[in-house]
Amino acid sequence: MCLILIAHRAHPRYPLVVAANRDEWFRRASAPAAFWEDAPDVLAGRDLEQGGTWLGVTRSGRFAALTNFREPGAHREDAPSRGALVSDFLRGREATPEFLARLAPHASRYNGFNLVAWDGETLAVTSNRNGSTHALGAGVFGLSNHLLDTPWPKVREGRIGLAALLAREVSVEALLELLDDTRIAEDRELPDTGVGLEWERRLAPLRIVAGDYGTRCSTVLLVDREGHVDFAERAFAPDGTPAGLVRERFSLAWQADRPLERPRSHPQPTFSPREPAGRRYEPK
Fold first, then answer.
1. Between the chain's N and C termini, which has fewer beta carbons within 10 Å?
2. pLDDT tens profile 121-130
3. What is the DSSP letter of 38?
């Protein structure tokens, strides 16, 4: 994924709301979201080159998603697949803190990544580019190809838009519309990540339409406090037109015995993004 927006314990009905866009070269072979034959509890798309995934959810109540860390010139061809981190978490049974603690000593083997993981109770994010792992409390969060809540235009606008939806009516359709924003930010707002101004412009929108590279799919996940899951994935062609929709609804395996805890309060999230660890990208 290249944009993940998350509302965690910020809505009275939905403890977890996710809206994400996956940006990738269209030539990279991948399969649309489905329950995997070799892991029937896992609902996710699949990278057909390496076998992993970028985002998924399970019938047992696990969710994970990953973004690459943008750092031109630092990619190592011999590094293990980052998509395997998502699939390993989804297939496993470890609690989020234990999984991330086990990953930490080996995280430097991978190319740059941010990993979000939720086990039904603890939501956390880790990055191997600043060595940090944070458990996330109630709030609205945004993650692109830098650290959590780095105020790139797409992250800032996505968080604001998601917070606005939480105050009105949350639905799959509204979240897909939020992700379907192809506006380009002004040059003065763009980060300088080393790819040049032309590519900064192409990569700036929430949904990228840039020919051979762009947003391959938009994914929405709603988990309500009774353990009901609503999942949707809209695929796109290289010209930016819709190319299919996957929709799945199911109940988590434990929902009858352990309903998700209702948050005690639901204050309107505020937006004063903290300074992320590591270098902050200043607008040019």
1. C
2. 999 999 999 9
3. T
Q: Give the C-alpha separation, 284 to 279, whole Å.
A: 15
> Among all chains, which residue has been given the structure tokens 């037109």?
241
Three-state DSSP at 90 gives helix
Q: 142 near 149, Cβ under 8 Å?
A: yes
d(CA 155, CA 176): 16
Beta-carbon contacts of 41 under 8 Å, excluding residues fewer than 6 positions away, are: 35, 58, 59, 60, 253
pLDDT at position 41 over 60: yes
The pLDDT value given to residue 245: 97
Where in 53-122 does DSSP place strands (E)?
55-58, 63-68, 113-118
Residues in the chain: 284
Half-sphere exposure of 251 (CA within 13 A, CB side): 8
Partner residues linked to 214 by β-bridges: 24, 209
DSSP 171-237: -HHHHHHHH---PPPPGGG----SS-HHHHHHH-SSS-EETTEEEEEEEEEEE-TTSEEEEEEEEE-
pLDDT (tens digit, 9 = 90+) per residue, 71-92? 998 999 999 999 999 999 999 9
pTM summary value: 0.89
* Domains of the chain and any CATH numbers: 3-251 (3.60.60.10)
The pLDDT-based confidence of 254 (bands split at 50, 70, 90) is low
Nearest CA to 31 out of 235, 247, 173, 220 is that of 235
Higher pLDDT, 254 or 284: 254
**The tokens 């998603």 sit on which residue?**
65
